[in-house]
Amino acid sequence: MRAPIVVLSLFLMVVWLVVPRQPALAAPDADLWPDWQAYDPQSTLEVDHGAWQVVLDRYVTVQEPGVTSFDYAAASQDGGTAMVDAYVMAMTKVAVDQLNRDQQFAYWVNLYNALTVKVVLDHYPVDSIRDIDISPGLFSSGPWGKKLITVEGRTLSLNDIEHRILRPIWRDARIHYAVNCASIGCPALAPEAYEASKLDDQLDQAAKGFINHSRAVRVGADGGLVLSSLYDWYRGDFGKSDADFIAHLMAFAGPELMAILDDTTELDIADYEYDWALNAR
After folding, report:
1. What is the pTM (predicted TM-score) of this model?
2. Between vectors from CA 91 to CA 90 and to CA 96, what angle results, nearest 5°?
């Protein structure tokens, strides 16, 4: 029975050598699924995210400005998992195409974040969300490609929500500060559920919280900028030119960061970094 094993090993070696290898976490393109563009601009329907807010109130802690953690250990022991499951299930029953645009935006962001927490709780304990290797495909990793829910008859993954719906429909760079990947290097999981009535304020706050933290932008030992890998993976969303990207940062920068960027016209990037450790309390 050794021959089949040898053949399989040789096949995998050939694939590894021949197939072009992509970066481990190359960012998917924003690829619109047109069906999800449907909405009702006159709709007054509101989605109740109160159940998600209860979860956030109970398990999210603000560690410092722009940084939060989630108590997965407590949630996995005291009924928090069931609470998250119930909220996600309720969201799958929403008629999304009957909502107005702001309601839809809040719906998708809250659902994305709740699904991310659900995935971690379903596999807890883990050190990193990247350890939850459930995505299909020989060279895939993490949970982002796994079909997790069905909404209006269509099965969706986390990648589908972010890259097929949110990014291409709204084309708002602040989306990256709102969706959370359960990691220390990621923009914070907001302690407040997103609501259609105050989206701009909430998105601005998320952007400010991340951009003004050292995990987003800092000066390296050689004087060059060390940026979050988020700005490498999705550079086009934040501005293709250096000037556009700097303008994006400055729109949300506090005094310390503004002092760094004030005289900058071209980026001197020393490195990109990202901490994939779980954002656990």
Report:
1. 0.90
2. 135
